[in-house]
Specification:
Methane Monooxygenase Hydroxylase, Chain G, domain 1; 10 helices; 2 domains; single chain; mainly alpha; 0% strand
Amino acid sequence: MHKLEQITDEIRKIFDARTSARDHALAQARQLTRACSLAIRAVHRDEVDVMNAHLQEARQLADTLRASLASHPDLFYAGYTQDALKEFVEANITCALIRNEPLQTPEELVVEPSTFLNGLAEVVGELRRRSLDILRHGYSPEVERLLGIMDEIYSVMVTMDYPDAITNGLRRQTDLARSIIEKTRGDITFSLRGEHLEQAISQLSAQLNSDPQNGGVLSASKNQEGSG
């Protein structure tokens, strides 16, 4: 029984170390997620300096998270850790695409391929948000650029026809991205038709006002109303 006590004492030490590492990783993952969220909010507000500061903070937190779990691979590949790194990917790609800057690779971001793709999938939602912000002020060619990027992301994701165990649930994200893209396409089409209608009305109004014959008819009509 004495040997059993020694064995269980060693097990407790291992469990204590893993529990401590897990709690620390959870705290770091929350901080990383928050920094990424703030970076995305900043890029939507065109606050470039704030965006860069939060991206730098996120990079440091991601590096620390990886280093702290180097001896605990099971915890590193746990859901909450990879979810936080997915947010890290989403923040970096969203900021780069909105700013029309080069994308970073999975190797540069130091993330797993499946984590990179799932983060990329969630970028589609942020590009829709950006598009709607632009459309509130009227149609712009910028939304066509963003829609083109969304289409390109979907075209890549739909070719990743692998089991969910390999891609970590990418198929569901791909279906969601398709729905978001179609909604965005409809919003852009509606806005563009409204823009064309406004232009047509404006041109017609300008023609009526500049045509002397039409102007005479309008004046005569007004005079008749006045004399009546």
